[in-house]
Write a sequence for this structure.
Protein backbone atom coordinates (compact mmCIF):
# COMPACT_ATOMS: atom_id res chain seq x y z
CA UNK A 1 0.00 0.00 0.00
CA UNK A 2 1.56 3.30 -0.99
CA UNK A 3 1.18 6.47 1.00
CA UNK A 4 -1.66 7.79 -1.05
CA UNK A 5 -3.71 4.65 -0.72
CA UNK A 6 -2.98 4.56 2.98
CA UNK A 7 -4.13 8.12 3.58
CA UNK A 8 -7.18 7.44 1.50
CA UNK A 9 -8.06 4.40 3.57
CA UNK A 10 -7.62 6.35 6.81
CA UNK A 11 -9.79 9.15 5.50
CA UNK A 12 -12.50 6.70 4.53
CA UNK A 13 -12.44 4.84 7.82
CA UNK A 14 -12.86 8.10 9.72
CA UNK A 15 -15.77 9.22 7.63
CA UNK A 16 -17.29 5.80 7.36
CA UNK A 17 -17.99 6.14 11.02
CA UNK A 18 -20.69 8.64 10.17
CA UNK A 19 -23.23 6.78 8.13
CA UNK A 20 -25.46 9.81 7.79
CA UNK A 21 -24.04 13.28 7.59
CA UNK A 22 -26.32 16.31 7.31
CA UNK A 23 -24.65 19.68 6.75
CA UNK A 24 -26.43 23.01 6.69
CA UNK A 25 -29.68 21.51 5.51
CA UNK A 26 -32.34 24.17 4.90
CA UNK A 27 -35.96 23.94 3.87
CA UNK A 28 -38.77 26.51 3.81
CA UNK A 29 -37.98 29.09 6.51
CA UNK A 30 -36.49 26.65 9.02
CA UNK A 31 -33.01 27.37 10.35
CA UNK A 32 -30.13 25.46 8.86
CA UNK A 33 -29.48 22.06 10.47
CA UNK A 34 -26.30 20.03 10.80
CA UNK A 35 -25.81 16.70 12.54
CA UNK A 36 -24.41 13.25 12.03
CA UNK A 37 -25.60 9.77 12.91
CA UNK A 38 -22.95 7.14 13.51
CA UNK A 39 -22.95 3.62 12.21
CA UNK A 40 -25.41 1.45 14.11
CA UNK A 41 -26.73 4.39 16.10
CA UNK A 42 -30.24 5.71 16.55
CA UNK A 43 -31.05 9.40 16.86
CA UNK A 44 -34.28 10.11 18.71
CA UNK A 45 -36.07 13.20 17.38
CA UNK A 46 -38.86 14.81 19.34
CA UNK A 47 -40.84 18.02 19.12
CA UNK A 48 -44.41 19.19 19.11
CA UNK A 49 -46.80 18.42 16.28
CA UNK A 50 -46.17 20.82 13.42
CA UNK A 51 -42.63 21.60 14.58
CA UNK A 52 -41.23 20.23 11.31
CA UNK A 53 -39.96 16.76 12.24
CA UNK A 54 -41.59 15.19 9.18
CA UNK A 55 -40.34 18.04 6.99
CA UNK A 56 -36.79 17.27 8.12
CA UNK A 57 -37.16 13.58 7.21
CA UNK A 58 -38.67 14.54 3.84
CA UNK A 59 -35.84 16.98 3.16
CA UNK A 60 -33.23 14.31 3.91
CA UNK A 61 -35.06 11.91 1.57
CA UNK A 62 -35.08 14.73 -1.03
CA UNK A 63 -38.83 14.75 -1.45
CA UNK A 64 -39.29 18.52 -1.07
CA UNK A 65 -37.17 21.42 -2.24
CA UNK A 66 -34.23 21.84 0.13
CA UNK A 67 -30.65 23.08 0.20
CA UNK A 68 -27.55 21.81 1.89
CA UNK A 69 -25.48 18.69 1.83
CA UNK A 70 -26.43 15.21 2.90
CA UNK A 71 -24.16 12.22 2.50
CA UNK A 72 -24.19 8.52 3.27
CA UNK A 73 -20.80 7.02 4.13
CA UNK A 74 -19.12 10.07 2.61
CA UNK A 75 -21.00 9.75 -0.67
CA UNK A 76 -22.81 12.96 -1.46
CA UNK A 77 -26.48 13.00 -2.26
CA UNK A 78 -25.80 14.86 -5.51
CA UNK A 79 -23.88 11.87 -6.85
CA UNK A 80 -27.07 9.77 -6.80
CA UNK A 81 -30.24 10.16 -8.83
CA UNK A 82 -33.31 10.99 -6.75
CA UNK A 83 -34.74 7.43 -6.87
CA UNK A 84 -31.39 5.77 -6.09
CA UNK A 85 -30.88 8.10 -3.15
CA UNK A 86 -34.31 7.22 -1.77
CA UNK A 87 -33.48 3.52 -2.02
CA UNK A 88 -30.51 4.11 0.28
CA UNK A 89 -32.56 6.32 2.59
CA UNK A 90 -35.33 4.16 3.94
CA UNK A 91 -38.00 6.71 4.78
CA UNK A 92 -41.06 5.27 6.54
CA UNK A 93 -43.91 7.83 6.52
CA UNK A 94 -46.32 7.91 9.44
CA UNK A 95 -49.08 6.53 7.27
CA UNK A 96 -48.29 3.64 4.94
CA UNK A 97 -49.57 3.71 1.37
CA UNK A 98 -50.37 0.75 -0.86
CA UNK A 99 -51.11 0.97 -4.58
CA UNK A 100 -51.36 -2.62 -5.84
CA UNK A 101 -54.09 -5.00 -4.70
CA UNK A 102 -51.83 -7.64 -3.12
CA UNK A 103 -49.18 -7.11 -0.43
CA UNK A 104 -46.47 -9.04 -2.27
CA UNK A 105 -46.72 -6.87 -5.39
CA UNK A 106 -45.16 -4.04 -3.39
CA UNK A 107 -41.97 -5.98 -2.60
CA UNK A 108 -39.01 -6.10 -4.98
CA UNK A 109 -37.99 -9.37 -3.36
CA UNK A 110 -39.62 -11.30 -0.57
CA UNK A 111 -36.67 -13.62 0.13
CA UNK A 112 -35.52 -11.76 3.23
CA UNK A 113 -39.01 -11.35 4.58
CA UNK A 114 -40.10 -13.78 7.26
CA UNK A 115 -43.68 -13.13 8.42
CA UNK A 116 -43.15 -14.41 11.97
CA UNK A 117 -40.36 -11.86 12.59
CA UNK A 118 -42.94 -9.16 12.00
CA UNK A 119 -45.52 -10.81 14.21
CA UNK A 120 -47.61 -12.53 11.56
CA UNK A 121 -48.74 -16.06 12.38
CA UNK A 122 -50.12 -16.32 8.86
CA UNK A 123 -47.16 -17.30 6.65
CA UNK A 124 -49.01 -16.33 3.48
CA UNK A 125 -49.64 -12.73 4.59
CA UNK A 126 -47.64 -11.71 1.53
CA UNK A 127 -50.41 -13.04 -0.72
CA UNK A 128 -53.24 -11.30 1.08
CA UNK A 129 -55.20 -8.33 -0.18
CA UNK A 130 -54.14 -4.95 1.14
CA UNK A 131 -57.74 -3.83 1.69
CA UNK A 132 -58.33 -6.58 4.23
CA UNK A 133 -55.46 -5.59 6.53
CA UNK A 134 -55.74 -3.54 9.69
CA UNK A 135 -53.78 -0.30 9.99
CA UNK A 136 -51.40 -1.97 12.46
CA UNK A 137 -50.76 -4.83 10.05
CA UNK A 138 -50.14 -2.36 7.23
CA UNK A 139 -47.70 -0.44 9.39
CA UNK A 140 -45.67 -3.56 10.16
CA UNK A 141 -45.76 -4.64 6.52
CA UNK A 142 -44.61 -1.18 5.47
CA UNK A 143 -41.56 -1.63 7.71
CA UNK A 144 -40.99 -5.07 6.19
CA UNK A 145 -41.21 -3.56 2.70
CA UNK A 146 -38.73 -0.88 3.69
CA UNK A 147 -36.20 -3.26 5.25
CA UNK A 148 -36.40 -5.68 2.31
CA UNK A 149 -34.68 -3.02 0.20
CA UNK A 150 -31.70 -3.03 2.65
CA UNK A 151 -31.41 0.76 3.10
CA UNK A 152 -28.33 2.18 4.83
CA UNK A 153 -30.30 4.78 6.73
CA UNK A 154 -33.75 4.50 8.32
CA UNK A 155 -35.93 7.56 8.78
CA UNK A 156 -38.86 6.40 10.87
CA UNK A 157 -41.80 8.71 11.39
CA UNK A 158 -43.77 7.45 14.39
CA UNK A 159 -43.34 3.83 13.33
CA UNK A 160 -45.40 2.42 16.20
CA UNK A 161 -48.28 4.92 16.21
CA UNK A 162 -50.94 2.33 15.33
CA UNK A 163 -49.48 -0.62 17.23
CA UNK A 164 -50.42 -2.35 20.47
CA UNK A 165 -47.71 -2.74 23.19
CA UNK A 166 -46.77 -6.23 21.99
CA UNK A 167 -46.19 -5.16 18.40
CA UNK A 168 -44.55 -1.91 19.50
CA UNK A 169 -42.03 -4.01 21.33
CA UNK A 170 -41.58 -6.19 18.28
CA UNK A 171 -40.94 -3.24 15.93
CA UNK A 172 -38.45 -1.68 18.35
CA UNK A 173 -36.59 -4.99 18.43
CA UNK A 174 -36.62 -5.34 14.64
CA UNK A 175 -35.19 -1.88 14.11
CA UNK A 176 -32.54 -2.49 16.79
CA UNK A 177 -31.50 -5.75 15.15
CA UNK A 178 -31.42 -4.20 11.71
CA UNK A 179 -29.21 -1.28 12.68
CA UNK A 180 -26.81 -3.53 14.63
CA UNK A 181 -26.60 -6.11 11.88
CA UNK A 182 -26.18 -3.66 8.97
CA UNK A 183 -24.51 -0.76 10.78
CA UNK A 184 -27.40 1.40 9.63
CA UNK A 185 -28.07 4.91 10.95
CA UNK A 186 -31.58 5.50 12.27
CA UNK A 187 -33.58 8.65 12.94
CA UNK A 188 -36.63 7.79 15.05
CA UNK A 189 -39.40 10.38 15.37
CA UNK A 190 -41.86 9.81 18.22
CA UNK A 191 -43.95 11.61 20.78
CA UNK A 192 -43.52 8.87 23.33
CA UNK A 193 -40.69 9.97 25.61
CA UNK A 194 -40.05 6.57 27.17
CA UNK A 195 -39.85 4.94 23.74
CA UNK A 196 -37.19 7.38 22.59
CA UNK A 197 -35.21 6.68 25.76
CA UNK A 198 -35.42 2.95 24.96
CA UNK A 199 -34.50 3.04 21.27
CA UNK A 200 -32.06 5.91 20.81
CA UNK A 201 -28.52 6.72 21.88
CA UNK A 202 -28.56 10.43 20.99
CA UNK A 203 -31.40 12.92 21.10
CA UNK A 204 -32.40 16.11 19.27
CA UNK A 205 -35.37 18.41 19.69
CA UNK A 206 -37.16 20.39 17.00
CA UNK A 207 -38.39 23.68 18.38
CA UNK A 208 -38.98 27.18 16.98
CA UNK A 209 -37.87 26.03 13.51
CA UNK A 210 -34.49 24.94 14.83
CA UNK A 211 -32.86 21.69 15.73
CA UNK A 212 -31.72 21.86 19.36
CA UNK A 213 -29.71 19.55 21.52
CA UNK A 214 -32.00 17.72 23.87
CA UNK A 215 -31.99 18.53 27.56
CA UNK A 216 -34.42 17.26 30.08
CA UNK B 1 -65.83 14.46 -60.70
CA UNK B 2 -69.28 15.99 -60.49
CA UNK B 3 -72.03 13.49 -61.02
CA UNK B 4 -74.59 16.22 -60.93
CA UNK B 5 -74.54 18.96 -63.52
CA UNK B 6 -77.11 20.91 -61.53
CA UNK B 7 -75.87 23.83 -59.44
CA UNK B 8 -75.86 23.22 -55.69
CA UNK B 9 -78.90 24.72 -53.94
CA UNK B 10 -77.91 27.95 -52.24
CA UNK B 11 -79.42 28.38 -48.80
CA UNK B 12 -80.79 31.90 -48.80
CA UNK B 13 -81.05 33.99 -45.63
CA UNK B 14 -84.72 33.24 -45.03
CA UNK B 15 -84.01 29.50 -44.99
CA UNK B 16 -81.21 29.99 -42.43
CA UNK B 17 -83.57 32.08 -40.30
CA UNK B 18 -86.00 29.18 -40.39
CA UNK B 19 -83.38 26.94 -38.76
CA UNK B 20 -82.68 29.73 -36.30
CA UNK B 21 -86.35 29.81 -35.29
CA UNK B 22 -86.08 26.17 -34.26
CA UNK B 23 -83.26 27.11 -31.85
CA UNK B 24 -85.45 29.84 -30.40
CA UNK B 25 -88.22 27.31 -29.83
CA UNK B 26 -85.75 25.00 -28.08
CA UNK B 27 -84.45 27.97 -26.07
CA UNK B 28 -87.98 28.80 -24.97
CA UNK B 29 -88.69 25.27 -23.73
CA UNK B 30 -85.36 24.94 -21.89
CA UNK B 31 -85.97 28.31 -20.25
CA UNK B 32 -89.49 27.21 -19.22
CA UNK B 33 -88.16 24.03 -17.63
CA UNK B 34 -85.34 25.78 -15.73
CA UNK B 35 -82.58 23.90 -17.53
CA UNK B 36 -80.13 26.83 -17.33
CA UNK B 37 -78.93 26.21 -20.85
CA UNK B 38 -81.12 28.65 -22.76
CA UNK B 39 -78.65 31.52 -22.56
CA UNK B 40 -75.46 29.60 -23.44
CA UNK B 41 -77.39 27.86 -26.21
CA UNK B 42 -78.43 31.14 -27.83
CA UNK B 43 -75.06 32.80 -27.29
CA UNK B 44 -73.11 29.97 -28.87
CA UNK B 45 -75.57 29.67 -31.74
CA UNK B 46 -75.08 33.36 -32.44
CA UNK B 47 -71.31 33.03 -32.11
CA UNK B 48 -71.32 30.12 -34.52
CA UNK B 49 -73.31 32.07 -37.12
CA UNK B 50 -71.05 35.11 -36.95
CA UNK B 51 -67.81 33.07 -36.91
CA UNK B 52 -68.85 30.96 -39.86
CA UNK B 53 -69.98 33.94 -41.98
CA UNK B 54 -66.66 35.62 -41.19
CA UNK B 55 -64.57 32.59 -42.07
CA UNK B 56 -66.59 32.28 -45.25
CA UNK B 57 -65.61 35.81 -46.23
CA UNK B 58 -62.00 35.16 -45.23
CA UNK B 59 -61.83 31.95 -47.22
CA UNK B 60 -63.20 33.64 -50.34
CA UNK B 61 -60.46 36.24 -49.92
CA UNK B 62 -57.72 33.68 -49.32
CA UNK B 63 -58.78 31.60 -52.29
CA UNK B 64 -58.66 34.65 -54.53
CA UNK B 65 -55.20 35.77 -53.32
CA UNK B 66 -53.88 32.17 -53.31
CA UNK B 67 -50.52 32.88 -51.65
CA UNK B 68 -48.60 30.41 -49.40
CA UNK B 69 -47.68 33.05 -46.81
CA UNK B 70 -51.31 33.92 -46.31
CA UNK B 71 -52.17 30.24 -45.87
CA UNK B 72 -49.34 29.95 -43.32
CA UNK B 73 -50.61 33.00 -41.45
CA UNK B 74 -54.15 31.65 -41.22
CA UNK B 75 -52.78 28.24 -40.20
CA UNK B 76 -50.73 29.80 -37.40
CA UNK B 77 -53.69 31.75 -36.08
CA UNK B 78 -55.79 28.58 -36.06
CA UNK B 79 -52.98 26.74 -34.25
CA UNK B 80 -52.57 29.40 -31.56
CA UNK B 81 -56.30 29.55 -30.91
CA UNK B 82 -56.41 25.74 -30.64
CA UNK B 83 -53.46 25.78 -28.23
CA UNK B 84 -55.21 28.33 -26.06
CA UNK B 85 -58.39 26.31 -26.16
CA UNK B 86 -56.57 23.17 -25.00
CA UNK B 87 -55.10 24.95 -22.00
CA UNK B 88 -58.39 26.67 -21.22
CA UNK B 89 -60.20 23.34 -21.00
CA UNK B 90 -58.11 22.02 -18.10
CA UNK B 91 -59.50 21.82 -14.61
CA UNK B 92 -56.02 21.41 -13.15
CA UNK B 93 -53.36 23.09 -15.21
CA UNK B 94 -49.66 23.72 -15.14
CA UNK B 95 -48.89 27.13 -13.68
CA UNK B 96 -47.71 29.99 -15.85
CA UNK B 97 -47.23 30.13 -19.60
CA UNK B 98 -46.25 26.47 -19.75
CA UNK B 99 -49.83 25.36 -19.94
CA UNK B 100 -50.28 27.37 -23.12
CA UNK B 101 -46.94 26.20 -24.50
CA UNK B 102 -47.77 22.55 -23.92
CA UNK B 103 -51.17 22.93 -25.60
CA UNK B 104 -49.77 24.73 -28.63
CA UNK B 105 -46.78 22.45 -28.98
CA UNK B 106 -48.83 19.27 -28.92
CA UNK B 107 -51.40 20.77 -31.29
CA UNK B 108 -48.54 21.63 -33.63
CA UNK B 109 -47.44 18.00 -33.73
CA UNK B 110 -50.93 16.53 -33.84
CA UNK B 111 -52.28 18.84 -36.54
CA UNK B 112 -49.70 21.01 -38.25
CA UNK B 113 -47.10 18.35 -38.87
CA UNK B 114 -49.67 15.68 -39.75
CA UNK B 115 -51.48 18.08 -42.14
CA UNK B 116 -48.27 18.94 -43.93
CA UNK B 117 -47.53 15.25 -44.34
CA UNK B 118 -51.04 14.62 -45.65
CA UNK B 119 -50.87 17.52 -48.11
CA UNK B 120 -47.40 16.74 -49.40
CA UNK B 121 -47.45 12.97 -49.48
CA UNK B 122 -51.08 11.94 -49.83
CA UNK B 123 -53.20 14.64 -51.47
CA UNK B 124 -50.34 15.99 -53.63
CA UNK B 125 -52.13 19.02 -55.04
CA UNK B 126 -50.28 20.97 -57.72
CA UNK B 127 -49.34 23.52 -55.05
CA UNK B 128 -49.32 21.44 -51.87
CA UNK B 129 -50.21 24.53 -49.81
CA UNK B 130 -53.28 25.22 -52.00
CA UNK B 131 -55.72 26.79 -49.51
CA UNK B 132 -58.64 24.80 -50.94
CA UNK B 133 -57.00 21.67 -49.51
CA UNK B 134 -54.70 22.99 -46.80
CA UNK B 135 -57.21 24.97 -44.76
CA UNK B 136 -59.99 22.34 -44.58
CA UNK B 137 -57.48 19.57 -43.77
CA UNK B 138 -55.76 21.60 -41.06
CA UNK B 139 -59.09 22.76 -39.68
CA UNK B 140 -60.45 19.25 -39.45
CA UNK B 141 -57.31 17.92 -37.78
CA UNK B 142 -57.19 20.79 -35.31
CA UNK B 143 -60.84 20.43 -34.41
CA UNK B 144 -60.70 16.69 -33.83
CA UNK B 145 -57.28 16.30 -32.23
CA UNK B 146 -57.89 19.24 -29.91
CA UNK B 147 -60.48 17.20 -28.04
CA UNK B 148 -58.13 14.24 -27.71
CA UNK B 149 -55.20 16.34 -26.50
CA UNK B 150 -57.34 18.32 -24.08
CA UNK B 151 -58.95 15.13 -22.73
CA UNK B 152 -55.69 13.32 -22.14
CA UNK B 153 -54.00 16.29 -20.44
CA UNK B 154 -57.06 16.84 -18.31
CA UNK B 155 -57.23 13.21 -17.30
CA UNK B 156 -53.52 13.12 -16.58
CA UNK B 157 -53.27 16.18 -14.36
CA UNK B 158 -56.51 15.32 -12.55
CA UNK B 159 -55.28 11.78 -11.82
CA UNK B 160 -51.85 12.97 -10.70
CA UNK B 161 -53.56 15.45 -8.41
CA UNK B 162 -55.92 12.86 -6.94
CA UNK B 163 -53.25 10.18 -6.59
CA UNK B 164 -50.48 12.50 -5.43
CA UNK B 165 -50.02 10.70 -2.12
CA UNK B 166 -49.79 7.34 -3.83
CA UNK B 167 -47.30 8.64 -6.40
CA UNK B 168 -45.18 10.09 -3.64
CA UNK B 169 -45.33 6.84 -1.67
CA UNK B 170 -43.94 5.08 -4.72
CA UNK B 171 -41.16 7.66 -5.09
CA UNK B 172 -40.33 7.17 -1.39
CA UNK B 173 -39.48 3.53 -1.89
CA UNK B 174 -37.15 4.52 -4.73
CA UNK B 175 -39.30 4.05 -7.82
CA UNK B 176 -38.54 6.37 -10.72
CA UNK B 177 -41.17 8.92 -11.68
CA UNK B 178 -41.72 7.06 -14.93
CA UNK B 179 -42.68 3.85 -13.12
CA UNK B 180 -44.70 5.70 -10.48
CA UNK B 181 -47.01 7.31 -13.04
CA UNK B 182 -47.06 4.55 -15.65
CA UNK B 183 -50.67 3.52 -14.98
CA UNK B 184 -51.84 7.13 -15.03
CA UNK B 185 -50.10 7.79 -18.35
CA UNK B 186 -51.72 4.73 -19.91
CA UNK B 187 -55.11 5.71 -18.59
CA UNK B 188 -54.84 9.29 -19.90
CA UNK B 189 -53.73 8.23 -23.36
CA UNK B 190 -56.57 5.78 -23.55
CA UNK B 191 -59.14 8.37 -22.61
CA UNK B 192 -57.69 10.76 -25.21
CA UNK B 193 -57.85 8.16 -27.96
CA UNK B 194 -61.19 6.61 -27.06
CA UNK B 195 -63.38 9.17 -28.91
CA UNK B 196 -61.53 8.76 -32.20
CA UNK B 197 -61.49 4.97 -31.85
CA UNK B 198 -65.24 4.94 -31.22
CA UNK B 199 -65.93 7.34 -34.08
CA UNK B 200 -63.92 5.28 -36.53
CA UNK B 201 -65.71 2.14 -35.42
CA UNK B 202 -69.13 3.56 -36.28
CA UNK B 203 -68.08 5.73 -39.25
CA UNK B 204 -70.43 5.18 -42.15
CA UNK B 205 -72.80 2.93 -40.21
CA UNK B 206 -74.30 5.14 -37.55
CA UNK B 207 -72.94 8.49 -38.68
CA UNK B 208 -71.88 9.94 -41.98
CA UNK B 209 -68.81 12.04 -41.29
CA UNK B 210 -69.17 15.78 -41.94
CA UNK B 211 -66.54 16.15 -44.62
CA UNK B 212 -67.96 13.30 -46.67
CA UNK B 213 -71.48 14.63 -46.29
CA UNK B 214 -70.29 18.03 -47.46
CA UNK B 215 -68.68 16.65 -50.56
CA UNK B 216 -71.71 14.56 -51.43
CA UNK B 217 -73.99 17.57 -50.95
CA UNK B 218 -71.68 19.55 -53.20
CA UNK B 219 -72.31 17.01 -55.92
CA UNK B 220 -69.13 14.91 -55.77
CA UNK B 221 -69.29 11.18 -56.25
CA UNK B 222 -69.63 9.27 -52.97
CA UNK B 223 -66.66 7.19 -54.03
CA UNK B 224 -64.37 10.25 -54.06
CA UNK B 225 -65.89 11.55 -50.86
CA UNK B 226 -65.25 8.25 -49.10
CA UNK B 227 -61.61 8.21 -50.12
CA UNK B 228 -61.02 11.68 -48.73
CA UNK B 229 -62.85 10.78 -45.55
CA UNK B 230 -60.75 7.65 -45.01
CA UNK B 231 -57.51 9.58 -45.32
CA UNK B 232 -58.76 12.31 -43.01
CA UNK B 233 -59.86 9.83 -40.32
CA UNK B 234 -56.52 8.04 -40.43
CA UNK B 235 -54.67 11.35 -40.14
CA UNK B 236 -56.94 12.38 -37.27
CA UNK B 237 -56.22 9.13 -35.43
CA UNK B 238 -52.47 9.59 -35.92
CA UNK B 239 -52.72 13.21 -34.80
CA UNK B 240 -54.72 12.32 -31.70
CA UNK B 241 -52.24 9.62 -30.73
CA UNK B 242 -49.03 11.57 -31.17
CA UNK B 243 -50.56 14.79 -29.89
CA UNK B 244 -51.75 13.13 -26.68
CA UNK B 245 -48.46 11.31 -26.17
CA UNK B 246 -46.43 14.49 -26.53
CA UNK B 247 -48.83 16.49 -24.37
CA UNK B 248 -48.75 13.95 -21.53
CA UNK B 249 -44.97 13.64 -21.81
CA UNK B 250 -44.55 17.41 -21.57
CA UNK B 251 -46.89 17.72 -18.62
CA UNK B 252 -45.22 14.86 -16.75
CA UNK B 253 -41.79 16.41 -17.35
CA UNK B 254 -43.04 19.59 -15.71
CA UNK B 255 -44.55 17.72 -12.76
CA UNK B 256 -41.24 16.17 -11.69
CA UNK B 257 -37.99 18.06 -11.23
CA UNK B 258 -34.39 17.01 -11.73
CA UNK B 259 -34.40 15.10 -8.42
CA UNK B 260 -37.60 13.35 -9.49
CA UNK B 261 -39.61 15.00 -6.76
CA UNK B 262 -43.32 15.29 -7.40
CA UNK B 263 -43.87 19.04 -7.86
CA UNK B 264 -47.57 19.21 -7.14
CA UNK B 265 -47.01 22.93 -6.47
CA UNK B 266 -46.72 23.42 -10.23
CA UNK B 267 -50.35 22.46 -10.71
CA UNK B 268 -52.91 25.17 -10.26
CA UNK B 269 -56.54 24.45 -9.66
CA UNK B 270 -58.83 26.74 -11.54
CA UNK B 271 -62.57 26.78 -11.75
CA UNK B 272 -64.08 26.15 -15.15
CA UNK B 273 -66.92 28.40 -16.09
Amino acid sequence: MNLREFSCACYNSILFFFVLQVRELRFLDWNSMSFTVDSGQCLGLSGQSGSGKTLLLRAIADLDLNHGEVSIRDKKRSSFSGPNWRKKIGYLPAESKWWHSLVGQHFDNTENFSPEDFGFSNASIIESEVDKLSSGEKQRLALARLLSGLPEVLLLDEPTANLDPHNTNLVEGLVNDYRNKHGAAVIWVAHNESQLVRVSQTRLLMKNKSLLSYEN
Amino acid sequence: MKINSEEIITLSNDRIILAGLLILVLGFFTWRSDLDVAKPLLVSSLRMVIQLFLIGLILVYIFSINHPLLVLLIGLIMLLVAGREVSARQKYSIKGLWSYGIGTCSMFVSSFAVSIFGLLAIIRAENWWDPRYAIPVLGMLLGNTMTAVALSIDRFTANVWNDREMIEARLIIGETSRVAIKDIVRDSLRSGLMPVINSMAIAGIVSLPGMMTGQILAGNSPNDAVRYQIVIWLLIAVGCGFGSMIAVKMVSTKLFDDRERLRIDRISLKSLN
User: Anything to note?
Assistant: The beta strands of chain B are 92-94, 267-269. Residues 222-255 of chain B form the longest helix (34 residues).
